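Field log, afternoon session.

UNIT: design team B
ACTIVITY: writing a sequence onto a fixed backbone
BACKBONE:
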């Protein structure tokens, strides 16, 4: 087994002000430019954006209706001590809870499906681009830096 010279190890382990960053920071990009760059990746799935917006709006409306029912319970059932309105309040509340669950599930599933298809198209383009780079590009850069950049940048877009 070959022994690694100490000056190589020192350079690898160098931390602090003396070490240069492995990957330079990306320049800031205006939101309009970000939208312009990523809008093509929504092609074929743009019709799903309307249900996503509707699910996002319907959820809080159902939550507001549930809160209003609690107000009705306090005002019409508990304060006057009359249980008759409770006969229509209980099934209504149960229906709202079921509707809230269905809307939440539909929202999560649709958003996840659209988001994952978006990321799949983005990753395919990134890997296609990396495969078209010259061998000289890879000779000038460390493989770990390239892999980190490819996976990290796509993960950053996913998080965004």
């Amino acid at each position: 087994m070959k022994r690694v010279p100490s000056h190589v190890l020192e350079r690898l382990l160098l931390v602090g002000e003396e070490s240069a960053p492995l990957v330079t920071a990306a320049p800031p990009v205006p939101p309009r430019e970000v939208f312009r760059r990523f809008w093509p990746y929504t092609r074929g799935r743009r019709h799903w954006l309307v249900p996503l917006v509707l699910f996002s709006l319907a959820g809080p409306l159902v939550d507001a209706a549930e809160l209003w029912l609690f107000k009705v319970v306090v005002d019409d059932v508990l304060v006057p001590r009359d249980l008759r309105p409770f006969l229509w309040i209980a099934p209504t509340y149960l229906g709202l809870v079921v509707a809230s669950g269905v809307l939440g599930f539909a929202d999560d599933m649709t958003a996840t499906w659209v988001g994952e298809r978006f990321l799949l198209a983005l990753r395919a383009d990134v890997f296609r681009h990396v495969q078209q780079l010259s061998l000289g590009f890879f000779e000038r850069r460390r493989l770990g830096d390239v892999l980190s950049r490819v996976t990290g940048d796509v993960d950053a877009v996913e998080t965004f």
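LOG NOTE: The chain has six helices and no strands.
NEXT ACTIVITY: expression trials, pending approval
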